[in-house]
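dumping the sequnces here before i forget
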Amino acid sequence: MAAQGKCSVRFTRRYAASAREVWCALTDPESLGRWLGRPAGVEVVVREVEPGHVLEFDWRREGEEPSLVRFELRGDGDATVLVLEHSRIDEPEGMASIARWDRALRRFEGVLSA
Amino acid sequence: MSAFAALADPTRRRIVELLVEGERSAGEIAAEFPTSRPGVSRHLRVLREQGLVRARGQGRRRLYSLDPAPLAELDRWLARYRDFWTNRLDALETEIRRQRRNR
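..and the predicted 3d for all of it:
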């Protein structure tokens, strides 16, 4: 089987609060429990913490290779920009199989018209 | 290569954007890019291999069009992450507000 590719998704948000306030809401255990909760079937393991700037964790969903979730904060005037990157996600099975089927069908077409 | 990897290339994304407007010939597509014609052909071949683009012959011309199926599949996949994280980031905003109120 060919090695499966990896994908990532990135989201950028701007919050009207200081980086310190966003960091507190992001990481305070009670607050974290409310905004992230306990995603079903996911084990979260903290990998890197750079207070006020970076929070990174392993995202281990049952039945999937672990992926990586990283939050980065930076001040922007009175506001704070948060960049969330969820990376090393297994490329969707469906996408790969569509391409495979399409190629197979085209070869089949080639055989028919030969 | 996957459909994702195929779309990671900016020239190929631009070709897809062009084909959203409708079917185009290879020449019309190539005219949009500073890249050489063979370069554009290579990109078209990759897009066809990934099932993103279809080609048909019309006289001596080859006409290219989008195949929406893989793009719809890609969007469904993306929606799962988009919905999940969008909800979480909204909830984070609520927490930031709550923190301000409680201060």
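The mean pLDDT of chain B is 90.
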